[in-house]
């Protein structure tokens, strides 16, 4: 599955993308804000990531700049128990430029087209920028603060939980498979 937004092209990762993934995520400032990525992030981690199967109802994408295919980060939805969870990371050189919000809107459109009705997300409390992205996307705080393990930190850290009812979003049909 592929998706084109104003500035971005979202596409599945391919085996040859592992070096670009490594170059974007192998930054402690990026990894410490993720729950599943280890630190230090090694070449074998990137190779394993791009080789993972992608479930049709839970796609993940490389976020690339449409004009030159530069890797900006990664985004996707994943089954998290009974919920569907949005997760993403943006490489440090691209922070603060609205790419996470733009990619997030695109993935929410895809999730809606795939029939998902509710998406959850969270951010570590010491990463308020991610909370701002979630708010811009329409997520509402659930009021729950929970400890979540961070592989990158090697310990649990407090996270704020959010949820979004996709039935309240306008229906969008420009998803390309």
From TrEMBL:
Belongs to the acetyltransferase family. RimJ subfamily. Pfam families: Acetyltransf_3. One of its GO terms (molecular function) is acyltransferase activity, transferring groups other than amino-acyl groups. The keyword Transmembrane helix does not apply. It comes from the Bacteria. Signal peptide: none annotated. Residues 8-167 form the N-acetyltransferase domain. Coiled coil: none annotated. The keyword Acyltransferase applies. Keywords: Acyltransferase, Transferase. InterPro entries: Acyl_CoA_acyltransferase, GNAT_dom, N-acetyltransferase. This is Acetyltransferase, GNAT family protein.
